[in-house]
Specification:
Layout lengths: L5 H4 L10 E6 L2 E7 H11 L2 E6 L6 E5 L1 H18 L5 E6 L5 H16 L3 E7 L8 H14 L4 E10 L2 E8 L15 E2 L30
Parallel strand pairs: 1-4, 5-6, 5-9
Antiparallel strand pairs: 1-2, 3-4, 6-8, 7-8
């Protein structure tokens, strides 16, 4: 459903049908007057009577040029929007037996995400019988949080959800400007298996980090 524009949100001049209103404006003392008198005052000043608080008792109206009023409202909305910071959630995936090289690779990425003002969703994925190592997964996530304490704070402690043990980290510092919200979360995962890179002769050997944003399996 399309939102009404600003000009449709405010009643002005003869559109205001209540008996009396409270008027405000530059150089005007707040007072309750008959709507007919408020319209006369607006005409004498060469401005409009704009209803700004229709639910007040009585409704509050401002004596101001309507075009100027709409311009001020649009400018105010833009300023609010510019100050809003949109936070992305980046995913970091581990296996229950992640080696130190892969761990440090993901730790570096998490530091960058938190520095950029993003939240981090770190999780350990358990396949098959590896669920037996859930305590080991919890220890790994707590170590991860400790190594990132300079950059972020734990928003939720590790919790097991199905085959995943999940922990959320929030940045300690907010970015200075508004960030562009990305359509998808970035996941930093383990090195690829042979089925995704059949040309590799030794699929279990780590061949170096992939380009950020690609999917990796444990």
């Amino acid at each position: 459903m399309k939102k009404p524009n600003l000009k449709q949100q405010y009643r002005v001049n003869e559109q205001i049908r209540v008996r009396e209103v409270r008027i405000v404006g530059d150089g005007i003392e707040s007072q309750v007057v008959l709507t007919s008198k408020a319209l006369q005052m607006a005409e004498q000043r060469g401005v409009d009577l704009v209803e700004i608080s229709p639910n007040a008792e009585p409704p509050v109206c401002r004596l101001i040029d309507y075009s100027k009023f709409i311009y001020q409202q649009k400018k105010h909305q833009k300023e609010i929007k510019a100050k809003q910071v949109k936070v992305d959630v980046k995913e970091i995936r581990f296996g229950p037996q992640t080696d130190d090289h892969d761990y440090n690779f993901k730790l570096k990425h998490a530091q960058g995400f938190l520095n950029d003002g993003d939240k981090v969703k770190a999780y350990v994925f358990f396949k098959g019988r590896s669920i037996l190592f859930k305590e080991q997964g919890e220890v790994l996530l707590l170590r991860f949080a400790q190594d990132l304490e300079e950059y972020g704070k734990v928003e939720s402690m590790p919790q097991l959800e199905g085959k995943r043990m999940i922990m959320f980290l929030a940045p300690k510092k907010q970015p200075s400007g508004a960030k562009k919200l990305q359509d998808t979360d970035e996941a930093v995962e383990a090195p690829v298996r042979e089925k995704k890179a059949p040309q590799q002769k030794a699929p279990k050997e780590y061949t170096g980090p992939k380009v950020e944003g690609e999917n990796f399996d444990d």
